[in-house]
User: Fold this.
Amino acid sequence: MSLKFLVLFTLFIHTLSKISLLGGRTSLEDSTKSRYIAAFEKILKITQEFNSDSCDEKENNNTSCTKYVVQSGDGAWNLSESWCQDGNGWKKHIFTDSNCTSNLTTSNIKIGQDLYFGEGCTNPNSDSHSDSDSDNTDEDNDNSSSCTEYTIKSGDGLWTLSDAWCKDGNGWEKHIFTDSNCATNITSSNITVGQKIYFGEGCKDPNSKPDTGSAGKNVFISYISAKDIYNKGNNAKRLLAQDNSVNDIGSYVSQKGLQGAMMWEISGDLPTSNPLSLKNAVLNHPGFNNKVSGYYWADWDMYLESHAIPAPNKPIDDFQEDFTTLSNAGRTVYVYYAFMETISKTDSEAGITENDLGTLYFFDPWSDLSPDNCSDDSLTDTYVMKVKKNAAIKNTCKNATKYDNFPKFAKLTNAVRLISVGGYSYDRTFEVMYADNGALNETASDNFIKSAVDLIKKYDIDGIDLDYEDLHMTKDMSESYLALVKKMRQYFNDNGLKDKKITLTILSDPKYMKGVRGGQYGFSNLSEFEPYIDSLQLMTYDFHGGFDFGPNGFNKAGFLSNLESSSEYAPNFSVENSVQAALDVKIPASKVIVGMPAYGRSISNIDNKVGKQGVKGLGQGLMEGKSVALLAGDMDNKGCETSSVSPCTGMFSYRYIVDNLLKEGFEGKQSITPEIASAAYAEEWKPPVPPKTCTEYTIKSGDGLWTLSDQWCMDGNGWKTHIFTDSKCATNISSSNITVGEKIYFGTGCKSPN
Assistant:
């Protein structure tokens, strides 16, 4: 969410799921990993574009609009890649008119069709380049500088390689080439050992080790504290002050007449009973009386034990007591179950046809369901099982489900329960339902709405949360999205579901909300959604972070989320700016919900000068001679320090910040005014080092190293790293051939599941 994610995370970003399937089972980890890493990379790009947007935004692209006639073999992605060096950005680079004002919205292009490339794109076959500000006049216009050779090994497959190298298994035909200039895409999946292939731009060797720099030195972190939500200090401004200035988020929500606030996400907070928890501040602030108090729970919260800094897993029903306490205090508790997706591509091998597109499905059935609450006849339940091809045995409800969180979610009391659909980097969940000129694909949209209603009726759910975040949403796409929301509301009304809620969760950039980001992207019609929705949820977080440090970035350490703006520390983004944008487009304040992050983002190698607010590092850039580095936070995956697939993000849960960082050398301030945000700094911080252990285990009948490593170490794929052949855990196991009675040894970080 976000600027989620600027996941999120992700993003992300949130965190990397470990989804394991028992017996002769496989792991769904690869698809989950791809989801959040894609979100993380998207964060970097989006933030750079947001910051660039705030400076020298062009009015239009008319100064450079080049005609091209579609030829045999052309595809929108490949054309955008060769002309604009940005295949994924084809929707923003390619237009259907000679003024470059109407973006291409569909990848279905025909031979002879006229297309137009906008500013920054050049014909790859021209002999000269357009003028630019660059001093380099001899730059070649090919992909050879980002074209990496690879030799096929035994067991390789193009989907697996593309997923590992490019985080996009399904896109192997666009990412892999047959020549060293990356000019000719591979077209056949038939490959032979020893054959040379080439990976194009955006792909990198998953076995390369990134330079993480001095990740534990000069660390700045920004977050939201309980004091930012409820400031009871003696020097605080008056609650609900008449001069329109407020001192905390609770007062702001009340004074503005907002519907409430929501948290991303609940596992990052302390229990409500803890006076330092964010929920405790919501519980006690009078500004939240009769307001929505919303909490996202993500199905990857079942894999917190596998993080770089492990924590107990958090099933959704662990929070029932919190919800009851808040509800009894007059808060309207919303709980969002994140995330479900829609089928967005066909798969003939799995029997998925165009007639299935748009159907809602459980993204992680291992976390979401159990054998008792799963039907092998339900595509919603089993889609993920059907499209995974690398299982030793066929995936079924019996062996591919476990934790049963969705049925537990359905049984929550004292809460409004909402299914959250989409999330960061899953634009296709919605766009598969779009047609040209703002219309809908009727079959796909019917499938989506009917499958959602089936779930709502089956489990007696209170509604649905639509989390669509395409940064390059065009006017036509915005119209299609509106048509989808209208259609869903009408279907609810016609089928006895008038009381079911529809909430919209959106990016909170004011320009995006008004449809003028980049001059043309975002909601062209946000006000038109209002009659059909119950809430507009603004992702008012991830304003700043490590992603700022790039060519077009802010290049200063700023606030993760701040209520008000300031010219020095928060010039572009604030909660107030986002809320005002919603009000400007006629969304009633009574339908607006603002976001509160239950995490912080850290950045290492930040200058230790004391900022204007008395916090080291705030508003400062990198130390001289240093590059940005990110710690392994408790929201990161184990091994992120040496992984190019899931690198560290420097994200820490609020729970860990309070219980650990602020007791281990981090010093700063909470509820910094006038921005209303918190920040801290440490000259040096070292992550906890688990005690070294080496535990003997005797192989039993039916054991497999992947399964054992998954059960003992929460990391099936890392069995070669975690399992040893000697009692000192000095020699890693190298072969999967094991025999009953053989002794193996599990290293540090692994423990018996029993």
